[in-house]
């Protein structure tokens, strides 16, 4: 298959729409957009494979209430047509920390078959997650106070 940027842009848009409309019964809808060996990385996971990708999404629905993604931007690399950056806001209600919102960016990579072969999430887990936990949060705030001006 040829690496057609217009086709990849459509796949990336469908991927963004997938996350914005994600429900527990729609998890497998992503299968037409990702490779069998998709590599997924976020602050908590570094895994490979479609089934593991499904399990991460399932776990999100088990762990938090009302998870929602709002996709803010899709941007393409000028150097390579296999790299798309997706900027997003995620919100949910999580045990212990309550209402939670975080902004992040996902690096999406495409393979030669024009499907997504990598999904790398970048967001500040220490500030937006760990710092909100009771004991760990207190310790992180103390370290941050010591390191800041």
Low-confidence stretches: none
Name the structural class. alpha+beta
What is the arithmetic mean of pLDDT? 89
DSSP helix fraction: 25-40%
**CATH class category name:** Alpha Beta
What is the 3D shape? globular
Number of strands: 6
The total domain count is: 1
Q: Do you know the CATH architecture?
A: Roll
- Percent of residues in beta strands? 35-45%
What is the CATH topology classification name?
Nuclear Transport Factor 2, Chain: A
Number of helices: 4
| Termini separation | 54 Å
- How are the strands of the largest sheet arranged? 2-1-6-5-4-3
Order of helices and strands: HEEHEEEEHH
Q: What does the radius of gyration come to? A: 17 Å
Largest sheet: 6 strands, mixed
Key traits:
149 residues; Nuclear Transport Factor 2, Chain: A; alpha+beta; six-stranded mixed beta sheet; 37% strand
Question: How would you sum up this structure, described in words?
Answer:
The N and C termini lie far apart (about 55 Å). This protein has a single domain, classed as Nuclear Transport Factor 2, Chain: A (Roll). A 6-stranded mixed β-sheet has the order 2-1-6-5-4-3, covered by helices on one side. A hairpin with a 6-residue loop joins strand 3 and strand 4. It is of the alpha+beta class and about 150 residues long. Helices cover about 30% and strands about 35% of the residues.
Secondary structure topology:
Blueprint: H1 5-20, E1 34-41, E2 46-48, H2 50-63, E3 65-76, E4 83-94, E5 98-110, E6 116-122, H3 125-128, H4 134-147
Parallel strand pairs: 1-6
Antiparallel strand pairs: 1-2, 3-4, 4-5, 5-6
